[in-house]
Design a protein that fits this description.
By secondary structure, the chain is of the alpha+beta class. It contains eight helices and twelve strands. It has a twelve-stranded mixed beta sheet with strand order 1-2-3-4-5-12-6-11-10-9-8-7, sandwiched between helices. Helix 7 links the parallel strand 10 and strand 11.
Length: 309
Amino acid sequence: MTVTVRDLRTEVRTDIEGFVHVRRLAIPFFLITPDSLAYDLSHTHPDAHYRPLVAEADGEVIGTAQVGIVHDSPEPGQGYVNVYVHPERTRLGAGSLLVRAAEEHLAAQGATRLFSWVLDEPGNRAFAERHGYRESRSAHFLRLDLANGTLPPLQSLPPDVELRTGADFVDDPRPLFELDSETMSDEPSDIAYEFTDYGAWLKETWNHPLLSHELTSVAVVDGRPAAFSAARTDGGTWYGTVMTGTARAFRGRGLAKLAKNDSLHRARAAGFTEAFTGNDAGNGPMIAINKWFGYEICATEVRYVREFG
């Protein structure tokens, strides 16, 4: 069986579906659909030099790679390569071919440090280390059974707090952009981010087809968004929290809990049966909040780093 690597043909639906199929099998805790992938491909910032790759064998897509530059970091030269192979098509060389093609692309873009998320399994770790990557920080995927689990009861709100939805900000989402930007800059990570491009945020986050404005909850204090819990859904039964955070001036008041609890209750009432989220392993406060809701860790990823160039 001959394995070849090529660019994902963005205009070919079977390529898009093959890419999504492999990703779902390899990492089922992360929401992706053919439509969301097509949207991402057409709206990624040009400075990211994003290049999705596929490994193919006998006409079947058996591996994928997401490859690009971290353009929204103040530190230049940082690239990423996330490789996933069909669980039943491993040991055919697809992963190594994808890594080689990805690194060639990133080298041409001036990358000097490469980051890669790897599922915390011995074979995956060994693969990363054989290719010159060293272990860095880790993160967890967490799952909550919305259909059968018991959510904490909704709490009464402090007098100066009200809960709104993302839909209440469709005419002017800039306050949510500013809140998202501030909270993301404080997220534990080995990559620093600066979200200053409002137009890019509108394209890549606010207008993303998976983002549910209706299920995104915002805690507002004296008219100002102070905390939020952003939700994505697949239009079926899958619900995911992609970001929960509080502005620095309002931390310590439990506002993120209020927002997330509101969103989870409304998601369950809307018929969603599974809730997923992710946490950096060093983010103790958010892990504690998610355990309070009843989330359980279902998988762990380790970020590997390679100095390059």
